[in-house]
Amino acid sequence: MATKIKKQFSLSFHWEAQDPFLFLAHHRDFYPAGNAEMGPVANLGDRNLGNDFDLNNDFKMYHGHTVPGFPAHPHRGFETVTIVLEGYVDHFDSSGASGRYGDGDVQWMTAGRGMQHCEMFPCLHETAPNPLELFQIWLNLPKARKFVEPYYKMLWSETVPFKPIRQNSREVGKVKVIAGEIFESQTICPAPDSVASDRDAEVVIALIDIEPNEMLTLTAAPEGVERTLYFYQGEQLSVDGEMINAKTGMMLTADALTLKNGMQTAKCLLLQGRPIGEPVAAYGPFVMNTRAEITEAYEDYQKTRFGGWPWEKADPVHPRHEGRVAKYADGTVASPKA
Length: 338
Prior knowledge:
- The protein is mostly beta strands.
- It has 2 domains: 1-5 and 161-278, Jelly Rolls (Sandwich); 21-160 and 289-314, Sandwich (Jelly Rolls), CATH 2.60.120.
- Helices cover 4% and strands 44% of the residues.
- It has 1 helix and 27 strands.
- It has a 7-stranded antiparallel β-sheet with strand order 1-21-18-23-16-13-12, with no helix packed on it. It has a 6-stranded antiparallel β-sheet with strand order 2-3-10-5-8-11, with no helix packed on it. It has a 6-stranded antiparallel β-sheet with strand order 4-9-6-7-26-27, with no helix packed on it.
- It comes from Fusibacter paucivorans.
């Protein structure tokens, strides 16, 4: 009997993906209490500040020097989908937009023709730890859309809740659907120029929890769709009869398959979609179709800075007591309670 798992790979920091996805990063950091500047209360003297990606440490500063995170940097030609499971992210971009999101919120950002943004991880709690866990998914744009207007939108956790999955008259798990439709749950892609906005693209981004000792059936995907399942937390999961340990990614066939869980809740991320099928040239923060277009992207950025940077510094953060909010370039302000 042919296996429905085409490929297995271990999950570390950057995870493999299939077209139309480029890759995804899983950030899991255990930040201590925060100081007056919302950086971690810790001795950072031995850190490679500005490039701290040491997976042996409980937390990483990434490209941050004071506050962990990713100070101002450019993008062109693709989208980022950032799912924050725990902790907070402060966003600022070259259009003048900004925001704070976390604890289940999702940010969808189409870089398009080019924009700068920063993603900082403020340590908001002064007397308690500041754990952070998030996924950032890079979703490609087809050639015809690589120069669309940049776009930024929030999906608040209150509007994208975990919903029960019921099969065989039992609640076998829960699903949070960020894009597409699966397990009779669906959401509307917030980005109008995204490949995910095309129904024929069959893009699905979903977080799936499977209850202990339960069995879940993943129905067949449409023909030609690529499907990847990331089993990132749990114990063991039987995937159509094959035992898989946690922290394993699986590129699957489009066939229906059965997931049978062990003694712990299994947490998975599912990505699927119809391949764009175009050449990919990627270097640093740019994803285009040719190397010449990558060179052009760097030249454009050096000339225009993609609109400049309207903020006083490269790593701004919001005031400590700022709530979850999105402040868009047109002056609109949105929050979960609005």
